[in-house]
Amino acid sequence: xxxxxxxxxxxxxxxxxxxxxxxxxxxxxxxxxxxxxxxxxxxxxxxxxxxxxxxxxxxxxxxxxxxxxxxxxxxxxxxxxxxxxxxxxxxxxxxxxxxxxxxxxxxxxxxxxxxxxxxxxxxxxxxxxxxxxxxxxxxxxxxxxxxxxxxxxxxxxxxxxxxxxxx
Length: 167
What we know:
This protein is α/β, with parallel strands linked by helices. The chain has a single domain (6-162), classed as Rossmann fold (3-Layer(aba) Sandwich), CATH 3.40.50.2300. The protein is built from five helices and four strands, in the order βαβαβαβαα. It has a four-stranded parallel beta sheet with strand order 2-1-3-4. Helix 1 (18-29) packs across helix 4 (120-142). It starts with 5 loop residues before the first strand and ends in a 5-residue tail after the last helix.
C-alpha cells in the first residue's frame, strides 16, 4: 500500500476494453482506497469507442485513454503493485515479469466483448454485460476486510472472486 491506497493493475490482451473498464470501475468504487491502472500484453492502437461511451454514460472516470504495455509497470523504478489481475486467458498465459512489490495475483477470466458478433445493439450489449460483471466482482473486492486478512487469506478471497462465472 502506498500513500494510503492499494495499487492495482488490470492486465488484458489489448487494453482496449475489459482492463480499461476494470480500471475505471475500481477508481470510482474504491473511493481513494485503490489506485487502479491497466495494461496489455499486446496493446491495441486505441481504446474501443463503445467502452469510452459506456464509461462516460455511467459516470466512470476515463483517464489516459490510450492502451499501455505492461512493461511500464514492471520496469526498474516502477511503483510497487499490491494486486495484479489478469482478465484474459492470453494475458494469464504470458510469461509475466516479477512485479515490483510482489503483489497478490489472480486470473479473473472475463469474455472479450470486442469479439462479440451480431448487430450493433448486440455488440453493445456484450460490452454492457462485461461492465456489469466487472462491477459485481469489484464491489465484492472493495468490501473485503483487508485489515483483518493475512496475505494467504486475501489471495484466496481474490481467487474466489475470480472464480465467479458472471464476470
